Fold this protein.
Amino acid sequence: MKPTRREFGASALVGLGAKSDRKITGGFVYESQERGHRLRDKARFATPTERVKIPVVIVGGGVAGLSAAWRFQKRGFHDFVILEMEDAAGGNARSGENTVSAYPWAAHYLPVPDHNEVLVRELCQELGLLLPDGTWNERWLCHSPQERLFLHGRWQEGIEPSIGLTKNDAGQYRHFEERIAEWHASGAFRIPMDHGLDQAAAKARALDQITMGEWMRREGLYSPYLKWFIDYSTRDDYGTHMEDISAWAGLHYFAARAPEDKGPLTWPDGNGWIVKRLLAKLAPFVRTQSMVYRIQQQRKTWRILTEKTLYDADFVVFAAPTHFASWLVDPAPPRWPIDSAPWMTANLTLDRWPANHGVEYAWDNVIYNSPSLGYVVATHQNVAMHQDRTVWTYYWALADGSPTDQRRILLGGDWAWWKEKILTDLERAHPDIRQCVSHIDIFRIGHAMPRPVPGTIFHPERLRRARLQGSLVYANCDLSALSLFEEAQSRGVSAADYVLRNISSTGTR
Amino acid sequence: MAVVLFLSVFLIAACGLIYELIAGTLASYLLGDSVLQFSTVIGSYLFAMGIGSWLSRFLDKALVSRFITIELMVGLLGGFSSTILFMAFTYTHAFQFLLYGMVIAIGILVGLEIPLLMRILRERFNFKELVANVLTFDYLGALGASLLFPLILVPKLGLVRSAILFGLINAGVALWSTFLFRAHLPSPIIQRAASIAVVLVLCGGLATADYITDTADAALYSDEVIFAKTTPYQRMVVTKWKQDYRLYLNSHLQFSSRDEYRYHESLVHPGLASVAGARHALVLGGGDGLAVREMLKYPGLQTITMVDLDPEMTRQFSTHPLLVELNSGSLKTSKLKIINADAFPWLEKDNSLFDFVVVDFPDPNNYSLGKLYTTAFYRLLRHHVAQRGVVVVQSTSPMFARKSFWCINETMKQAGFKTYPFHVYVPSFGEWGYVLGALEDWKPPTTLPAGLKFLTPANVASLFEFPPDLAPVAVEANRLNDQTLVRYYEHEWREIVR
């Protein structure tokens, strides 16, 4: 009905009565760069004081490590520990909470799995997300409105630009969608990705030789809106510009899933919701604050060293980021060829909502041509009608130029500098943002996710490391070069299955 | 003496710039695109000043008295500029027209000031000195204003009060001039009185700056406003016309005392009278107590739980004499337990069972309200309904919002209710609809409490008949992840409301 204009006018009146920038508190969270870099620099570590013999050690308590443990437990195998460097398990699915809401620190949703994704569906059933009658639990499907984009000075529904398109732009959207449908039908792109790789024809392999930007040019796709949308997607999923990313990876994002309109599944704490439920069953196996600094191969076993405990194990599931292996494992494996993208995530606590005009607040709110990825409203899945305070999770992939330089920028700026960057960016769409925000916590992630540049997907070392062999197997999702929950889960479960097969055959149990 | 004169120049220059900044800021705030707004506002303002300067040639006589009149006009117009523009944005569609109209009017008046003042001062100073000093203070005033505006005025006072404050400075300069140039004025008393009057009007504006929203209400409602209150959740307004009292929440009509019995009897009795031996009832929303008033006609009912978001709403309807008269003091009954909470999360936490539930929420005109009409909500609600219990949901108009009405029906069905939609004519609303939901097969009641004004055992069954123009239409259910209802509703009411 009509009163929106009036209501807005009235709210503007109240808002402008007296205004001043609020004092904003906050700081950096989870600063673990130093610990990681001590590993890299082969610093001296304390000698463990206790010694534990255990058949299996899982290194890394992210989704891959927890999924391996989940599988072990479901198969009735309990002789393992998970060693987690941080204070809490969860990896990229960690979350936080304050008096207003829970909120994610990185991964914040799970696409509704299709029928091929058997493992994800199994987990969803267990968590009450997939109901016995085959429907999805509406409570945790992303509520309306899902997405909006700030374009040409106003918000539009959806993040695919739709304001001011020419006929030509619209034609290019269609062209792109047709190509995606063809690639989807080809079966070369699947989740987990290994299922598609087996059937990848030479044509699909060739995509890994060029960048997504180059693919767009070859397809004659040059609509600025479409280019923005594709670049936004590659930054969002890979922390990498479309001009830097392998076309194979760029297309995987669009072509791997069947067109799905009901999803995704999401929670205030993002994928932390899943982690909490996994930990409810797996916490007894998790050793936090246990940074592994050496994994030495003995004659038939492995010796895993933390500053507290030395573990003697028959099998190691290496579920930590794979590039760590070069510093930890002795003898060291060849250099891991996949670089990672730096990210900054911030959780902003707002004491009131910025005045809003037109399209209502969505779950995912994106600003066109912003260097950031926009923000997700952490309280969006809250069913309360009235919410005076909220938390926004704000994402920024540092994708310009080389990751090394970007990491220097990421770590170089102090909190106040990043705070200004964030507010200045948000101010474009919310002029009164500074009167609303009371607290900003910032998470700087130097190595947030694998960066699949051309040549990565079919790189021999990636393929070799992803193969399950020997008594130390890799399981992190970066083996797929795709930072997806489904990949992490699949790698973790496959590693667990491999260990279970071999541990009984060698008779060490 | 000279310093005092040039101080006037300084002040009026500052005022002139402030009005320009206020117009630019307001336009940027309300319309967006600050570069465009500031450029066009500054451009038209400077141009209007040029017109003013040019017009000054036509003023030959009584310069001082003209100067004072101009100051007072600038004071009034500039002082109330942000108030007028806010109101225009809120209540009219002529905001831009008024914006540039005001900018040009103020610009012309401000453009007249300096040339007139220079001519007034001509005799006291030599030309060289005069030009140098006037322009120096003019520019100094501009500097002062441009620093003061963003650093102190906007943060501390806001736009409405800043404008009025500077209007007061203009009026002050006028008043002061009646003393300074006493000799040039034929009757300084009149000018002085006029200046004082303007000062008083502006002071009044300053004191009531916070109540602008309130006075604005009067323009919105055609009837006399007898009660108005803004709570953190909504704005409540009660109007009176003869014996007709009306409650508006966020300017949406909730009831008219002349015909609300039709709405509330229908909301409560077809459902509640059908549940033999009903003991526990729940009202979601309904903080006005009118549904509870109807429920109290069932002596067998032992408890009524009301969940309404706004404590101020239930407090006013429990204590305000006039409002208590409307609901016959129903909120004071000892059977009633009032819980001020958000209904959906409350249902998630609570696990009691009810024999009868009234769901009386505002229409689903946004996504936040739309959540309260979803399959997820009704599924949750179903778990609070006793096996032989009944729920009744107010479901907007099947006439004006036919798809919305049938969408609510479909949504309840998919949530596992057997549904029995019905409708009734409420003159102040039009044709209005409800959906009754039951877990078992249901039949309309054959007996009703005594003393109802609209429903009789004979006419209840007829409410469940739908003529062809209100008949069911194909619709999608409303889900949390796909709120079709909000889209239907928005689309349908857009067709109706002018």
